[in-house]
Amino acid sequence: MNMPLPDHGPLPFNNLLPADPERRRAEEEAVLRAVRSGCYILGPEVDAFEKEYALFCGSPHAVGCASGLDAIWLMLRAALENGLLRPGDEVLVPANTYIATMLGIVQAGLTPVPVEPDPATCLMPAVNIERALTPRTRAVMLVHLFGLCAWSAEIESLSLRHNLLLFEDNAQAHGCRAGGSRTGSFGLAAAHSFYPTKNLGAWGDAGAVTTSSPELAATVRTLRNYGSDSKGSFPLAGRNSRLDEIQAALLRTRLRFLDADNCRRRELASLYLRTLDTRKVTWPLQPPEGQNVFHLFPVFTPHRDSLSRHLRLNGIGTQIHYPVAPHRQGALPSLRNLNLPVTERLHATELSLPLHPSMRSADVERVVAAIDRWNP
Length: 376
Ligand SMILES: *Cc1c(COP(=O)(O)O)cnc(C)c1O
Prior knowledge:
The two termini are 36 Å apart. The chain is an alpha/beta fold. It contains twelve helices and eleven strands. The strands form three sheets. A seven-stranded mixed β-sheet has the order 1-9-8-5-4-2-3, with helices on both faces. The chain has a two-stranded antiparallel sheet with strand order 6-7. The structure holds pyridoxal-5'-phosphate. Residues 67-69, 97-98, 100-101, 143, 169, 171-172, 193, 195, 205, 207 line the site of pyridoxal-5'-phosphate.
């Protein structure tokens, strides 16, 4: 099962099973424990995961839910229900995020305002946030894209100065640190996705909201369970967005290995960074104030399709994150006419190379050698 692949065999873009058989056994045992408990929705595994994940993030509260998209909707709806936001308020969001960030904002009844990223870091810089402010701007959504920490002291002080709420989309950077803090603890609330490919991934869909506010946490708990605060009482119109025991049991086990996995991702990434030919591809610069936990290893080249074809012919899988920017999608017609050249260039030139914790250094060397042989 774990035989090293010969160098000419396929090197898939991702592998969602841990290489260590001990770890696989621990994961299967955790899931069996939940299966045998006879309790499947919002039980002791979910309670324990919420406590452990809150502690891990350094946030006072965590509430499990069904997906990352739901987590975005839940945290924003809770802010609306608590009077912190009003319907239609503008939320500044990086224009180059995954579309789910924008969909969550729209579905909560708020107005997403896409902000151009800095092409060097792929992150939304404070100066662009400042430029996008209007009298209706009420919040900033940080997106820790590709595993890069999007928080900065400058954005935090700008938010305070302009009385903006700070939210985080932490689908791609679980466990990422800046100073003594982790993603999920920088803003008023953060949305987390545990989709299988994420740094902390389930065996299906799962998500969570972390928040520093006990009121917001209570409202998210109500909203994720139809809007019910106690048996038979429905003060709010919520959704069914509950986390199940099987996923929570698996996530508890995987959380124990998250720092080690992120460390392995960073080691493999630093091998790419030391050996890739800068004349052929570029990549996002390290953010000055936070870590990169390398959810992905994106590179940029104007000849992206040629590189992807060349690697495929060498048995190496790649993916594009993401082929079309959110404002160009039929799902978001109100953003259709925006002119966002930096975002469009990033989307037109991005290619993600294989990077996951069960890869070997030799796999990275093989990708780098294949790129060395590539002539665009
Ligand atoms: C994956 C992802 C989401 C959505 O998470 P789901 O669990 O798939 O709903 C939201 N935002 C970003 C940035 C993502 O990468």
